[in-house]
Amino acid sequence: MVTKSLLYKYTYQNISSVDSLPKITIEDIGQLLVNINRIWPFIDYKLKSFPINFRNIMEGTRKDIIFSYKDKEPILGEPIFRNGEMIPTLKGMKDTERIIKVDIVSFFTKIKDNSREFRIYQLGRRYKGEDINFK
Known about the structure:
Elements (H helix, E strand, L loop, with lengths): L3 E9 L13 H10 L6 E6 L15 E14 L3 E3 L2 E3 L2 E23 L2 E14 L7
Antiparallel strand pairs: 1-7, 2-3, 3-6, 4-5, 6-7
């Protein structure tokens, strides 16, 4: 069984029909996931149909996406001495060659009259690309 983790939801009020739903592109979804710190900036994506069911999906609004991004590793700065311990400081992050992929499903669902909810789910766990060993 595949796990489904809700990453994001937003309620839109006063939506009278499917035609009045906001147009949310795949790039918008990816940028939203970056903004809420669920993925690093993505380098690629592809569409795929996942055999996972959700309830109350509004017809024509589901998007099944695999986002790919480069993993990052910390760049440590000079440690600081606090409370009798040396504590490392984070100077920044740098890209690695390791590519991470994440399966995402987004859709609108009707929650009440004239209210719709936009949801983004992650399926399973993050996984690494082909030809890369797990650490």
